[in-house]
Design goal:
- The protein contains 7 helices and 12 strands.
- α1 links the parallel β1 and β2.
- It starts with a strand and ends with a helix.
- It binds NADP nicotinamide-adenine-dinucleotide phosphate.
Amino acid sequence: MARVLILGGTGDAAELAAKVSFIRGVDHVITSLAGRTRHPSVPEGRVRVGGFGGSTGLAAYLREHQIDILIDATHPFAAQISWHAAEAAKSVAIPHLMLVRPAWNWVTGDHWIEVENTSDAAQAIPATAKRVFLTIGRQELAPFAPLVDRWFLMRMIDPPAPDAIVPQGEVLCDRGPFTLDNERQLLIHYRIDAIVSKNSGGDATYAKIIAARELGIPIIMVQRPAIPPSEQVATAEQALAWLTQVLQ
Ligand code: NAP
């Protein structure tokens, strides 16, 4: 009987955690959360919280808890933990899978300015855009603070840390999924003329992309960081199929 560790913090990981224990051959499932959000949506089954201490710490955890299979279902922008996971699984020699939800693709009517990181995003905001919607979470707000001639609406789950450098504007604490109607009203109400977003993919936060398309608002789209070469699937269903095969 196999023991499975899921690296979580995403809706995909929660969906996976709810279903993995029904797979024949699995008797133990643990989801790991980083502990960033104050009131996380807690996945079904056993949960542990907090960093492992790099790839060596994670490898030690895998050994100590006799984990047989590691599934990395973290957010596509959580690259550090993914590199650590790939390294740790290799050093312990256990099967390792990455669940990577597909990125959003540009479609006709979208006006995207694609950039590599949030610092470049701050530089790429069009000069005409004075009111900017930041939907990049709370950890990378500082690059926007020097832009004192702009006003920012910043949406995130928990407020910024007390010592964080926060650009001028308003913080809106909210958690997806967001409806198209919500996003349309928000962009109109706050008179937003540009959006900064990560290319997170998935349905939960896609409505803002549609609303921006409808309203002709440009999006500065931050591209995904590099992730380690590994076996990959795109959905929780595909991860379950992979697991079933590995356990045969
Ligand atoms: P990161 O930069 O890749 O990771 C930084 C460190 O946080 C890691 O080295 C690890 O610490 C710890 N960590 C990250 N994910 C962990 C997990 N699932 N379980 C235990 N420790 C974890 O990650 P991040 O971007 O800060 O994201 C943190 C969490 O938030 C992830 O679980 C991710 O799925 C979720 N999330 C991130 C984003 C985003 O935009 N980055 C968006 C939504 C959700 P040690 O080195 O000490 O092990």
